[in-house]
Hints:
By secondary structure, the protein is an alpha+beta fold. The protein contains two helices and eight strands; from the N terminus they run αβαβββββββ.
Amino acid sequence: MKNTIKILICGMIVFYLIAGGIALLLSRREEKSNQVDAQLFALQNDTIIGNASEDAPLPTAAGSEEDADVADAGSEGSSEADAVVVEVHYYAFSLQGVTSHLNVREEPALISASIAKLKPGATGYVLSQEDSWSRILTSDGIIGYCYNDYLVLTEIPVEDFPAEYR
């Protein structure tokens, strides 16, 4: 009887380890798929959220002839006619689907430290987006990262976006 219980317990442990591994693999696959979707969306729309700085590289279609022409023209002294025009959009955010609070994180990762908690109804500005995360500025002046699934973005005029972050 004792051996049967030991075998049953070992079997349950193995089952939970395998199930946890499968769940982890599936969540990584979905996250990777979301990253690809976001990159394709940015390439199709040629838009940047926030300011166009070194922190937020311009979206480019890898290997496109048009981009190669612009790059060649830049190295040979380009004219204004060859310049690439990129639309810059500015967004405010509000929370959706949050019943208690949403963590604002130091880095765009679930394992990153939480630096603040946003209550339902909180608002602020989106400084940039990367993959499944947005770099935000809260109404209290805190800058950090929130998971995109909990944010509702609203495009706003440039005048309404904080000047020091344009």
